Structure formats: C-alpha cells, structure tokens
Amino acid sequence: MLEIKNLQVKLEEEDKQILKGVDLTVEAGKVHAIMGPNGSGKSTLSYVLSGKDGYTVTDGSATLDGVDLLEMEPEDRAAAGLFLAFQYPVEIPGVGNMTFLRTAVNAQRKARGQEEMSSTEFLKVVREKAASLKIDAEMLKRPVNVGFSGGEKKRNEILQMAMLEPKMCILDETDSGLDVDAMRLVADGVNALRDEGRGFLVITHYQRLLDHIKPDVVHIMSNGRIVKTGGPELALEVEQNGYADLVEEA
Amino acid sequence: MALPQAKQTATEARLAALSLPEGGWSGPARAEALDRVRAMGLPGARDEYWKYTRPDTLVAAEAPVAKVVADDEVPLFDGTDRLSIVFVDGVFDAEASDDLTLEGLTIDRLADAPDIHWAKDLYGRLETHGQTPVQRPLAALNTAFASDGLLIRVTGKVAKPVNLIYRHADERSDVILHHVVKVEEGGDVTLLENGPAAARLNKVMEVDVADGAGFHHVRVQGREHDRRAATHIFARLGTESTFKTFTLTMNGVLTRNDCVVELTGDDAVAHIAGACLGDGDFHHDDTVFITHDAVNCESRQVFKKVLRNGGVGVFQGKILVKPGAQKTDGYQISQSLLLDGDSQFLAKPELEIYADDVACSHGSTSGAIDEDGLFYLRARGLPRGIAEDLLTIAFIAEAVMEIENEDLQAEINARVEAWLGRRRG
Ligand SMILES: Nc1ncnc2c1ncn2[C@@H]1O[C@H](COP(=O)(O)OP(=O)(O)O)[C@@H](O)[C@H]1O
Ligand SMILES: [Mg+2]
C-alpha cells in the first residue's frame, strides 16, 4: 500500500540532510511501528509523506497504491487516503471543531466524486465516534484544539481519523502526553479501524503504546535511516535495553 | 489662535457649499457647532490625528463620484424580525420604511421633530464633549449641517431591533446624517445599520446610555468600492450600563470610523469591535477613544483587519483612565492579517493612566496567514482556498464574537464568506 524507496530529504532552508535513504513498505491490513531516539527523523518522514513545506526530496520515492505521493498537494494526498495524526496538533482559534470536521469530510468526498454527507447523518456519525473516544459535545463545539489538554488533542486526532476513514494512517507519537486511560481510549480507537484494507504506520518513542496496538512489524530508525526491522519482539528489546545497542549494531 | 491660511481656505470652501438647515429647536446647537468648525478648521493632512488617513476627499467641497453597485445578495438582516427604516442617499423613504412605532421606544426624525423636544438636551452635547482632548471637526460640521437623522428615545426593553437601512442611488450624493439615541434607565435596544448610504457620508450618532440601560449596535457599511464615509459615535455610559458596538466593513475606498466613549458611572461595560476586509483601493481607519471616569468599569476594543492587493488598515486606539477610576479593566487588541506583501497596517495604540489600581493591556500585531494552521487543514483534505478562507474567518472571529446575538454573528460570518468567495481566484 505505502511504498517508500530510498527516500532522501534535506531541509529547504539549510543544507542539512535529515532522511538518508529510507526504505519501507506497509502492506494493506498491517500495522508497522517505527521506533527510534529523538531527532532520528521520524516526524520528518511523516511530514514529507503528507506534504509539508520546508523539505526537499533529493532522491527516492513514496507511493500510495502505486500513485506518486511526493508530487501531490497535501489535500490531494488526504483525498487519496493518507492521514497523519500530528505529534503536535495545531490550534485553530475561531474554527469550531464540528465545522472543521464537516468541512474536511465533505472536501474529501467531493475530491473523490462522492456526494456530501447530509448534516443529520454527519451529526449522528460524529456523535457516535466522539462518544467512544469520550469526547463530549462541549469539545466538539470548541475551536479546534484550542484550550485542549494534551490528551484531548490526541483523542481529537483519532476522531478525525475515524471520521475520514483513510486507508493509510500515520500516527506520530500519538501516545506522548497520554495517561494510561487515555492511551487505552486512543488504542481502542485505532484498533476499531484496523481492517484488511487499511495500513498503519505507528511512530512511537516508547513501547507502551504497542502493548495496546499490536504491530506486525517493528522498525528502528536512527539518524535518518531504518537500521533494523523485526517482529513485535524488537519493541520489547528496546524497552529492556534502550536504543543504544540497536543503534550501535547498525 | 488664527488657523493656518490653507486650513482656513479649505474650511471656508467646504462651508460655502453647505447651508444651515432651518433649525427649530436644534438651531442654537447648530449655530454653536458652526462656530466650533470655524474655530477648529476642518482636518488637513498635517493634523496629527489624521497622520495615517488623508482627509482631503472627506473635506472637499464636492463629494467625489462613487459608482452605484447593484447588490445581488439577499438584503442583510432580512431574516431578522425588526423595524426597518430606510434612507435613500440620506433622504428618509417613508414608503420603504415600517411604521415608526414600537413598544419601548419613540422615534422621531430630526428633520421634522416638534419644537419642544427631549433631544434638545442631547443634540450636539456629546459631540461637543468629545471635542476634548482631541478635536473632531467633521463631527461638529455634522451637528451644524445634518439634513436628517433619527431621534430615538428608549424607555423599556425593546423586543426587536431597529434597522437603519442606507441605500445609495446617486453617484454624487453627499450626505450628512445625525442620530441621537437616549436609552433611559432600564431600557435596552439593539440598533442595526447597513448599506453604503451615499457617495460620501458624514454620520454622527450620539448615544446616551442611562444607569442600568443597554445599547447594542451592529453595523455593516456596504459593499460598494468607491464610497467614502466619516462616521462618529459619541457615547456616554451611566452606572451598570452596557454599550456594545460592532462594525463590519467590506470594500469602500475610504472609511474613517471614530468611536468616542466615556464611562461615567461605576460598573459600566463598553465593547467596541470591528472587522474589515479590504482589497486593493481600500483605506480603513478605526479611531477609538475610551475615557474611564468611574470605578470598576470594563472596556474592550477588538479590531481585526484583513487586507490584500495594497489595502491599508489604520487603528488609533486610546484608553484614558482618569484619576480615581480604580479597578478599571481595559483591554485593547488590534490585529491585521496581510494576505500579501503589498498591504499595510498602521497602528497607534495608547494608554494614559492616572489611577493606580487598574488592569489595562493593549496589543497590536500584523502577520500573514498561519502556515502551520494552513498545512493542518490541508492535511485533512481542505483545498488551499477553502483552508485560507476558514483561517481568515477564524482570524476575525474574536471581533465577530463580540456580537451577543448568535444569529447576527452567523449572518455576519456568511457575508464574510461570500466576500471571500467572490475574491478567490
Ligand atoms: N524544520 C526544521 N528545521 C530545523 N531542523 C529540523 C527541522 N525539521 C527537522 N529538523 C531536524 O531534523 C532532525 C529530525 O527531526 P524529527 O524528524 O523531528 O525527529 P524525531 O521525530 O525522530 O524526533 C532533528 O535533528 C531536527 O532538529
Ligand atoms: Mg517527532
């Protein structure tokens, strides 16, 4: 589904190479995890895939179901089924969460040539999904992410993902800043979306989240490269020994 | 002190083009106002208070031509249950207006009010008072020469808004209107104003809000490109009274909105807000002067300006806290969103405080659209144009939310969205 080949990226503003040849394939129905020390390039990878400005791809490719992602506008990548749950969700003062969700859902439907969701249907679906993430009506009314706690922001990301039903979901440190209960809510939200047509790339610094979202494959990223790939046991190894050994081995 | 020759010449040229209306009860006030105009002279380019806005076309003997634009939108406030009063190029249109009776208030026209009239004690009074410490000669000119206006006396809580609709039909119309609103103790009223009014409009509204009374004002200054306007609001607030005004300005080659508010009774609240959207040949100036002269009062100024293609926004805002006005809570923010590098925002925020137990803050910013916000929205599938519009509406939201009535908020937002839609691409 998501196929990344020898992806090399540097910053647009300075001559600094951040990704130094990333190879990664996520198949439909699978959950891949990327772990790695801070600064290894995990967020950069997620941003480059979703189309953020400020990076220059110097080599390599990234495709979603065979379509070149790197040439597309961010909104077209979203419409093609790519979703990024941000490590730092952005606050948008003045735009109601509900308005935002409805505008996003309908923009994507329109881009795919589908009919817009009626407001009654939308309300029904959003209420249902919000309830399972313990997001109350008040939070839906408030401006997007404004005044939300860290945990609320992350749950809000998962709500957006649930509403947009993307086929390829990238979660960037969605577990950071969450207590155990919130983490379970988020994990349940993700697990509810797991199915054979959908791929996940779960970026995390810690193994904790992977207790709840069981990965099929675990990659270790260090200094702009995937340095090791293995099964779920690799995450446990990190938990016990830290990154030092793995990174040195590489 | 004698006026500079150029100022005197310009002032006399303007005065020569006008004639004092038959005054009746307002005659003495008009004569005094004319004296004030002669003493002050009309604004010139060298005046400090007109540093950022050129007054010449507002002062000229003749109004510059302004093309009349047929408005293709559903008229504003159409969905609101209201009492409508229509002026066409400043001339009252009885046919198009509702009957001027409504429970809780009386409405008379300045042009035909009976000789013994309550407004005698107010007409020109607040304007005169507002001439210090800063001179506002265009307002004095207005008091002297206003051809019409409404005298609204509010004695109770008025169930529906009064809507003044200003139509523009003649591309050379030069209009001077003067309203007086007296909200008596316990009274509460909402006043809506909309429309371009004239090729050139000089409008004054004096608002006296008594103890415990409330005045709510929402104004939309019309979509026309060529029109010019200089408006003044002079308000005096009694104990525990509320005064809230919001103005939306889209288009208009030149707009200067002065708002002069004096909080004279304890625990009074004044909110002055405005949003403007300007494209190209657009100059918009909000000049606000708030005087706190009582204890425990609150004032809020929230101004947002969206500018593109060389539009210019100006904000001059002052909070003056007089000795003894303790526990004053004064807030002022003015911000601009510059959608390109050609547009300009000029701000002069001022605080002058003579009491020690006060909390006053002011801030002014100018910036481009938030790139992080834009990427976040696009990453959720919103096309760039829609994402930018949403962020623009979000930018002015703090000002729009100063309107208490949520239906009116929604109506204002819809107008802004339509404006953005017309401009895109
Ligand atoms: N916009 C940027 N400007 C400067 N440095 C950046 C920028 N984006 C990423 N970097 C640098 O690139 C490296 C990788 O960062 P990041 O992708 O955020 O790592 P991770 O998510 O794995 O912690 C870090 O050294 C970081 O400082
Ligand atoms: Mg990161």
UniProtKB/TrEMBL annotation, chain A:
One of its GO terms (molecular function) is ATP hydrolysis activity. It comes from the Bacteria. Residues 2-248 form the ABC transporter domain. Keywords: ATP-binding, Nucleotide-binding. CDD domains: ABC_FeS_Assembly. Belongs to the ABC transporter superfamily. Ycf16 family. PANTHER family: ABC TRANSPORTER I FAMILY MEMBER 6, CHLOROPLASTIC. This is Fe-S cluster assembly ATP-binding protein.
TrEMBL record, chain B:
Transmembrane segments: none annotated. Residues 172-395 form the SUF system FeS cluster assembly SufBD core domain. GO terms for biological process: iron-sulfur cluster assembly. InterPro entries: Fe-S_cluster_assembly_SufBD, SUF_FeS_clus_asmbl_SufBD_core, SUF_FeS_clus_asmbl_SufBD_sf. This is Fe-S cluster assembly protein SufD. It comes from Salipiger marinus. The lineage of its organism: Bacteria, Pseudomonadati, Pseudomonadota, Alphaproteobacteria, Rhodobacterales.
